Amino acid sequence: MLFAGVTEIILRKVYGFCNSPLYINDPDYEYIYAPNQKVNRFGNHIRTNSLSMRSDELSTSDSTVILLLGDSVINGGSLTDHDSIGSTILEKRFLKTFGRPVRVLNISAGSWGPDNIAAYLKKHGLFNAKLLCLVTSSHDAHDIMSHQSPVGIDPGMPNKQYSIAWVEVWDRYRYWIWYNFLALLPSFESEKVNTQPELAESTVHKTTPADSTQKDSLLKAKLEESGIRKPGVGFNPGYRLIAELAKNAGIPLFIYLHPETSEVEMGHFNVQGKEIIAFAKENNIRLVNEFDLGVKKEFYRDLDVVHYNNRGQVFLANNLYPIFTEYLKAKP
Fold this sequence. Notes:
The structure is a single chain. The chain has 332 residues and is an alpha/beta fold. The chain has one domain (2-161, 228-330): SGNH hydrolase (Rossmann fold, 3-Layer(aba) Sandwich), CATH 3.40.50. Helix content is 43%, strand content 13%. The chain is built from 12 helices and 9 strands. It has helices spanning 2-13, 72-75, 86-98, 114-124, 165-184, 188-195, 197-202, 209-225, 238-249, 261-266, 271-282, 310-330, and strands spanning 23-26, 30-33, 38-41, 44-47, 65-70, 103-108, 131-136, 253-257, 286-289. Strand 3 (38-41) and strand 4 form a beta hairpin. Helix 3 crosses helix 12 (310-330). It is globular and about 65 Å long.
């Protein structure tokens, strides 16, 4: 009992269990972080404003506004502190450079597609923005809303706090714990190789050029099919809706295309990413290809497919700063 009690306190005070950022349902854009939150989770401070943006509260004095639109890539979730997300980094840098606030409003939620974003903008407006930047990835091409919100169903999107930290750990992380436990167990095949070195040595296959070519082809095919795949049918209509909102309001829009780690290994975007590139070209929308900016796997979280670590958030901010500045200087 003493062990359980001490562990409960550690889980709460040190790791922030029973203090998760909460979500709310929305009839238009499915779900989003609940508004007006200030929580500490895994050593990170997470804040949302009254409109559920991962940004400080808006003010009537906000004369220069940029909308940074996306999913968990820019949101950061519980694993990224408020001061470490790209939008906060940019606001601080603009204040230091210009001597006045430039708001970079972070409108995002985990697993949002462009249609979620478009629905948010249609409902809440464009906040007199000078510029819209959509950060997107290949899997967003078919990530279409189902209007079946996971809030309160998916343990990763709670609508209320757990009352016992032990319960939250088990409910949310049991599969991860079990997976890593199994990974520690030696495989039967490894044991066979280690106990029969003579056999392993005598049956070594000599690699030929044909073998290498086949292996390279299989690896290429595997990479092409890897990454996040969404079940939506057709190209996400949100891209066009966001473009139309920006055009009708006379606000510049550009797309920032961020690769998944499998694409970084390939050195180019997969079929879904190429669909986004084609859409931008066909509709005369500027597209910033992150491959052209030197993206590396070291900017991603360990064992993650798409999310930036803190270095990656700085990388994003460093890439966006000169582009944002270019538009702001051109805007009367």
